[in-house]
């Protein structure tokens, strides 16, 4: 299994773990867990940026982090921050669950399917139509939680995820979800 496949597997596992925490212990405990993960993760990142060896963190960075990231742990920090945005701003557990599916499952699907795709997107040559279709289709699973409102949420999130804005999609997709679920 290559580095990117491992990374996407972790992406899915984090999404599933967040869903399980949401439905077993509730929104507030999930919020506390994500906040603590960000807090501890920030301390580890700080130590790593000071060139201190933390063997477990070094292993995770080597196994799961993309090359040329802003700092070690960037991907994990973005997923955790995106999850925190969802849990802090959305009150309805079903909307949080639908959003977590987009963040955890759809994003991983888009990468796995998209990297084997043939049709690049006109606005972003680094992304493929197949990856966007996979993202959208995975996002529609949120229909089980929130019904037909998931159709426009998944569509807008797919569009935002496909554009190269320079902002990590693990931050943008949760913001889109919060805004759209607040409006609808």
The total beta strand count reads 0
Number of helices: 9
Low-confidence stretches: none
Rough shape? globular
Strand content: under 5%
Q: Give the integer mean of the pLDDT values.
A: 90
Folded structure, characterized:
- This protein is mostly helical.
- The chain has one domain.
- Helix 4 packs antiparallel against helix 5 and helix 8 runs antiparallel to helix 9.
- The mean pLDDT is 90.
Structure at a glance:
The protein is mainly α and 184 residues long. Helix content is 74%, strand content 0%.
Topology:
Elements: H1 3-24, H2 27-49, H3 55-64, H4 74-89, H5 93-114, H6 129-139, H7 143-146, H8 150-162, H9 169-183
Helix pairs in contact: 1-2, 1-5, 2-4, 4-5, 4-9, 5-6, 5-9, 6-8, 8-9
Which tags fit this structure?
184 residues; mainly alpha; 9 helices
